[in-house]
Amino acid sequence: MHPSHIPSLDKLLGQAPAGFLIERLGRDFSVTLYRDAISACRADMLSESCDSKQVVAPQEFESADDAATHVAAIIHKHATQACDSMLASSLKPVFNLTGTVLHTNLGRAPLPQACIDSMVKVSRGASTLEFDIEAGRRGDRDSHVEEWLCRLTGAEAATVVNNNAAAVLLTLNTVASQKSVAVSRGELVEIGGSFRVPAIMKKAGCHLAEVGTTNRTHEHDYLSAIEEGAIAVMKVHTSNYRIEGFTKSVSDAELASLAHERDCVFINDLGSGALVDLSRFGLPAEPTVRDAIQEGADIVTFSGDKLLGGPQCGLIVGKAEQIAAIRANPMKRALRCDKMTLAALETLLKLYANPEQLAQQIPSLRLLSRKPQHMQETADSLHQHLIKFFNSNITVATTDCQSQVGSGALPVESLPSLCLVLSPAGSLSVSNMAARLRELSVPVIGRINKNSLILDLRCLEHDDTAAFIANLESGGS
Fold first, then answer.
1. Do β-strands 131-132 and 137-138 pair in parallel, antiparallel, or remain unpaired?
2. CA 296: distance to chain centroid?
3. Whole-angstrom Cα distance, residue 49 to residue 35?
């Protein structure tokens, strides 16, 4: 078949398949896709590869018109496939079977349904985002969550930005621009995405005063930094590691006392943050925000989408004078949250009014507190479906495993869990197995360990099993 059999662009655009595509994508983008499809077809015809030629011309045709019709069908197909790919959402739900509950790459905390409902409600039209209904004038978007944050933490005031990195950046820029802040060397953390405390301090316009050593920091180390000009002391939660052995650190209460005696601000960055004692859910205890406030912190920063189980945001609570200054910083506008985030956060905070119901109402806490025995029924129901999906080219075994919290929370703690171990049989490779599951309508994300694919069932609740099986069946070969 010769390139002369390729219909003109105008003729292709006048045919029905192109009309449907133009309705979906618009004319300009559709023209581009058809030009690309024509170019690919022409290149295929001129290729020296016999296989390539057979894709374009699998048979002989009685006339040039028949050949042109065949080529047109191929071009329409390619353009439509390109359109489908272009319009497909790249941000989609997945089944998280990695064993990391608050997985940063997979969106961290799943939201409670009540939070989702609140987001949908305010997204549909105008809202009271910055309008005071009672006074009939402009309001403050922080007002929707500040009162609840103060109730739950004991702080005098609160404000919200788009994530905890922004909370730390804004706090430091407000409190210590062009000034020094004392931080223990053992707390100069680097978290995911190469985010480093020294780098964020530099961007905030303040100077880092490193104190102590990696494993041991004493009160006199902070005192020396203050005497040399530090106007603030910051404690940073070591969210993704622990220093153990021959160690020494200064308690929050001692740091607060030291800072206040010398008119310094004490900032406590809790990282993940927790509003309740996690031990009530069978999890290792983490310092709560209320603890940090009671121990004397002037400002506490923490995340909303980690242990709290809410939307991505950074929460700043503390003394009224400090929060007022932070809120007045021009950077605050650049870092503020939108109406959907605030709607979800307000609803989430109200759920914390009743701690006894949290494990049922907040998905992340429910997943973190699941017991392996609750996952056994799910494991049993998936065996044969997975074997069928892989055309019996795998073996499946159920075994105990360890999950982790994720997102820098409780980094050295693990959670007893249950997993399915998928091992290849025959020529199928583990990487191919993982790729097949990622190609499903709802991608399934596990983890590879040596020559097996591990599907940790902690985040696959019983009510989701039917949907998981239907997803496998829709993508089976």
1. antiparallel
2. 31
3. 22
Domains of the chain in start order, with CATH, are 3-87 (no CATH), 95-104+367-474 (3.90.1150.180), 113-361 (3.40.640.10)
pLDDT reported for residue 60: 64
Give pTM, 2 decimals: 0.90
First to last CA, the chain: 33
Closest CA to 183 of 238, 126, 128: 238
Rounded average pLDDT per 10-residue block, the chain, 477 residues: 84 95 95 95 74 46 81 94 93 96 94 98 96 94 97 98 95 96 90 78 94 91 95 87 80 95 96 90 88 97 95 98 97 96 98 92 94 91 94 93 81 86 90 95 95 96 94 81
Give me 169's structure tokens. Answer: 């950046």
- In this structure, how many other beta carbons lie within 10 angstroms of the beta carbon of residue 11? 12
- Tell me the pairing of strands 207-211 and 180-184: parallel
Q: How confident is the model at residue 296, as a pLDDT?
A: 97
Please state the length of the chain. 477
Q: Both tokens of residue 429?
A: 């490779």
Q: Are 116 and 309 spatial neighbours (Cβ–Cβ below 8 Å)?
A: no
Residue 28, judged by CB atoms within 10 A of its CB (0-12, 13-18, 19+), counts as exposed
Non-local (6+) Cβ contacts of 160 within 8 A are 142, 145, 149, 304, 313, 314, 315, 316, 336, 337, 341, 342, 345
Question: Measured between alpha carbons, how far is 187 from 213 in angstroms, rounded to an integer?
Answer: 10
Helix (H, G, I), strand (E, B) or coil at 165: helix
For residues 336 and 161, the answer to whether their CB atoms sit within 8 Å is: yes
Q: Are 79 and 38 in contact (CB under 8 A)?
A: no
Phi, psi of 191 (to 5 degrees): -110, -175
